[in-house]
Structure formats: C-alpha cells, structure tokens
Specification:
The chain is mostly helical. The protein contains 10 helices and no strands.
Amino acid sequence: MYIGLFDTGILATALAESLQRISIGFSLALLIGGLLGVIIGVSKLADETLGSLVIALQSVPSIVWLPIALVLFQGGAGAIYFVVILGGTWAMTLNVRMGIKNVQPILIRAAKTMGYKNSELIWKVMLPASIPSALTGARLAWAFGWRALMAAELIGRGGLGRTLMDARDFFNMDLVVAIMIIISCIGLIVEYFIFSKIEKKVLSRWGLTNSAS
C-alpha cells in the first residue's frame, strides 16, 4: 500500500479517479433522486405510476446495468457514471418520497391555516420535515453508488476497480489486498466522519434525539 500510494503512485492516481467519479455520480444521484422523490411524494398519480417503476428498478442490482451502459456509452466514462447514478438514485427517491408522505398532518393543517398553498406548502413545510428521511436516502445512495462504482470500473479505465482487476490478472495479491483495504477505509471515513456528524446535527435540529443521551 505504501509503495502504491507514495512510491509508484498507482494507488494514489486510481483513488483520485474513483473519488472524482463518485463525487460527480453521487451528486447527480442526489439531485435526480431528490427531484423524483418530491414529484412522487406530492402527486398521487405519479406515485401510482412512476413510484411503482422506481420500486421495481430498485430491486435491479447495479451491475445488471453494465451491458446497457456499455452499449449506450461505448464503454467510455459515461458508462461508469451511468451505473453509479442509477445505483444511488432509487434509494434517494424512495426515502424522499417516504419523508414527504410521513409529514405529520398537523403540520400541513397548521401551514394551510397560515395561508400556505401549493408550492409554498411543499418548499416550506414538506421538504424541511422530510430532511431526516432524505439524509437516510443520501447515506444509502452513497453506499450503493460506491459499490456500483467499483463494479463499473472493472470494465472501464482507471480507478480502484480497474486497478484491482489488473492486479488480479498479474497475480499481484499485495496490491489486491491494498485496494480492498482502501475501498473499506473510504466507506468508513465517509460514514463516520461525514454522515454520522451530519446526522447528529440534523436529528438534534429536528428534535429527534434522545434527551437522556
């Protein structure tokens, strides 16, 4: 691992490429998934049609999209982003939808009493109240997207996934184990140093923490 990160730079370059890809793919998954979640959450028609499709697509493993991605993007970087985005979008969509559906009716009635209508009701009441669920969706989107990225990079160029495949082909088990450790460590860092801290702040702000703790 030391040689790959600081001597040859193989792992450092692969890690930088993977982090760039997951950053872009994850951001787009949050944007697309959040928008779809809002549409499905506020529209009964969309929920009964598009919502069912989203539930069905969520059950499809990300790696299944690889053949379609290869055909659509000719094996380029777009294929990797396509798989990563699909890996995280559905989890974000369903959690935002659930958050909006579970907004307490008393909040909606109070907002209507104060004169909130249509878009104001969505942006000022439903969306803020659904943020804890959206955070859960973002956490799942990251996990699914990160795993999808590793699978997609196996058929792409660069990144930890491709480097892992090359190391396997050359029977370099030291490099294989090093990449596996890096993949695991990135997951732990994101979970404990980003999502856990954000979760504590959100739960405290929304009054969902245990006062005894």
